[in-house]
Design brief:
It is a single chain. By secondary structure, the protein is of the alpha+beta class. The protein has one domain: Metallo-beta-lactamase, Chain A (4-Layer Sandwich), CATH 3.60.15. 25% of the residues lie in helices and 28% in strands. A hairpin with a 5-residue loop joins β12 and β13. The relative contact order is 0.15. This is MBL fold metallo-hydrolase. Its cofactor is Zn(2+). InterPro entries: MBL_Glyoxalase_II, Metallo-B-lactamas, RibonucZ/Hydroxyglut_hydro. It holds the Pfam family Lactamase_B.
């Protein structure tokens, strides 16, 4: 069984998720934007072995703690898609601009592409490339538990911003309708900020993509 715990981090209340394989106790963390001691305390409380860092995209609130965490525990960094290389390169400048602790740039151990899989313990998740918020944004889909970890593509009642460099509104809409909706109305998604919702709920009521 794949399990997860969402831990809000940074002043931006970014939803960092700890995922683990119940059978093996092996864990990955999605989007460690900061507050690393808080995250590591939760991992220790759960008795897990943290083995990987997975990134949806490289904005500071999602990736700001990545370099330090990877260095501290000798962890591989998996994702995002290469389209976000310029955001990774600019992490030190992003940290200054948004008042975050100094952030390191890094080179991912593995870039991710549409159709890839990532594995933790006995569990596999599917990767979808969902550009629009950033050009290299990816989403992690766990069909075995009807969950998707969508970063800043979609929110309960809203969608990701597209006014940052290389954001693209139409690409974002196409990513949501073409790559998220086919995962099924029953799929619950964990967004980068705010509460969980389901794709069915958003298809019905989201003012930006409802009815699509």
């Amino acid at each position: 069984m794949l399990r997860y715990l969402t831990v809000p981090v940074t002043a931006f209340e970014q939803n960092c998720s700890i995922l683990w394989c119940d059978a093996t106790g092996k864990a990955a963390v999605i989007d460690p934007g900061g507050d690393l001691d808080k995250l590591l305390a939760e991992i220790q409380r759960l008795g897990l072995a943290l083995e990987q860092i997975w990134l949806t995209h490289a904005h500071i609130d999602h990736a700001g703690g990545t370099g330090a965490l990877a260095q501290r525990l000798a962890l591989p960094i998996v994702g995002p898609h290469p389209g976000d290389q310029f955001w990774i390169d600019g992490l030190p400048q992003q940290s200054t601009l948004f008042g975050f602790p100094p952030a390191q740039h890094f080179t991912p151990t593995r870039w991710l592409y549409d159709g890839d899989q990532v594995r933790i313990g006995n569990e596999a998740l599917n990767v979808r490339h969902c550009p629009g918020h950033t050009p290299g944004h990816v989403v992690f889909h766990a069909p075995q538990i009807d969950r998707a970890f969508v970063g800043d593509v979609l929110f309960a009642g809203s969608i990701g911003r597209t006014d940052f460099p290389q954001g693209n509104h139409q690409q974002l809409i196409d990513s949501i309708t073409g790559r998220l909706w086919p995962m099924g109305d029953q799929t619950v998604f964990i967004p980068g900020h705010g509460p969980e919702s389901s794709f069915g709920q958003e298809r019905r009521s989201n003012p930006y993509v409802g009815g699509s």
